[in-house]
Amino acid sequence: MFSGIVERLGQVTAVETVADGAVRLTLETGFPDLALGESVAVNGACMTIVESDMSGRAQVFVSAESLARTNLKALAVGGFVNLERAVTLATRLSGHLVQGHVDGEARVASIVHEDGAWKTRFDLPAALAPYCVEKGSIALNGVSLTLNAVEPVENGRFAVGVTLIPHTWTHTNLQHAAPGDPINVEVDVLAKYVERLCHASLNA
Hints:
Layout: E1 8-17, E2 23-28, E3 39-42, E4 45-52, E5 57-62, H1 64-69, E6 80-85, E7 104-114, E8 117-125, E9 137-140, E10 143-146, E11 149-150, E12 157-164, H2 166-171, E13 182-187, H3 189-202
Antiparallel strand pairs: 1-2, 1-6, 2-5, 3-4, 3-6, 4-5, 7-8, 7-13, 8-12, 9-10, 9-13, 11-12
């Protein structure tokens, strides 16, 4: 479990294709004490550390399923990734509950620098619309953000708006995003549980 507060900007140093369409990513993480088997969110996708050393270099195994569902398939050497280690029971929950289970890919629609911040719109699949509400939470590339606007569904897609403050801009890889880029999106898991409970109640 994560909170959507990015701790480090990691950099990809190697991408190795392995069996069955999976890849092994080598990352410079900045974490000298990663343990074998530890969970780390990479662009919001929960990954397991399969190798690490005290220099902060680490490797994660990305399955074909994860590649198909996330923007990790687009990573290349030199690319930057948002990194967050799993929360503990003593961790402040500064963002919101993030599982690291990516629900789909958004696309950057626009980025406008205005009033000292970056007002950004993302285009999402219509299937995620029921879980997005104004002033609700969403994780984009693993970053916990507040939805300022949720537009109606049209032609199987809909757009949401968020504001990136300077700290978020400079400490995450959203600073490198451009219109059309794929972004991992995870909607609020609490909204999904509420939907399931309501559906079960209505059909009881």
